[in-house]
Amino acid sequence: KAGVTQTPRYLIKTRGQQVTLSCSPISGHRSVSWYQQTPGQGLQFLFEYFSETQRNKGNFPGRFSGRQFSNSRSEMNVSTLELGDSALYLCASSWRDGYTEAFFGQGTRLTVV
Amino acid sequence: GQQLNQSPQSMFIQEGEDVSMNCTSSSIFNTWLWYKQDPGEGPVLLIALYKAGELTSNGRLTAQFGITRKDSFLNISASIPSDVGIYFCAGPRDDKIIFGKGTRLHILP
After folding, report:
1. Which end of chain A has less neighbouring CB within 10 Å, N or C?
2. For the residues of chain B, what is the DSSP string, one character each?
3. Which of A43, A48, A88 minimises the CB distance to B99?
């Protein structure tokens, strides 16, 4: 059974650009969550999607958005990139509503220059 | 907001030693999760605990769900070099999983 797949693994963007990251969950999983990980802040929750609906959102500005498709694949978008957006972006999938376990992808390392 | 407090923040141990780390919260959790993250990779789920008092093992790893439901412990026996990494405790809260800041494990040669 394939794990959670995130693409791309590495990305370098310049300030002001926008970026789209992709996440394919484990087959059969319907919940996808996104996290931002930085050395100073640890793992910070961005948002969670279940059956194409955003159920929960963390304390991030509106420049961070996401969506989920009918096949449960998810994308997150960051517009007007800032230097502080440089981080490891992690996607996690889970199979049930009100999930208790999440399985992570390898992450996308975004560097904003 | 809800926080998970992990201690210690970092540990330096000799290969072969046993390791203990813990996670506490001011509120009750119904599930405790322990993850390990290697550099540049995503966290990997090690152990999931669902019942107060539960003790669960995964190889050399043993985790316990505290009886108060406000804490959990992770022990690693006979540490080896590949145990190096960051260990996170986590728990589900309001349709999301929240994480502690992690315990960074270093193994001295």
Report:
1. N
2. ---EEEE-SEEEEETT--EEEEEEESS--S-EEEEEE-TTS--EEEEEE-STT-EEEETTEEEEE-TTSSEEEEEE-S--GGG-EEEEEEEEETTEEEE---EEEEEE-
3. A43
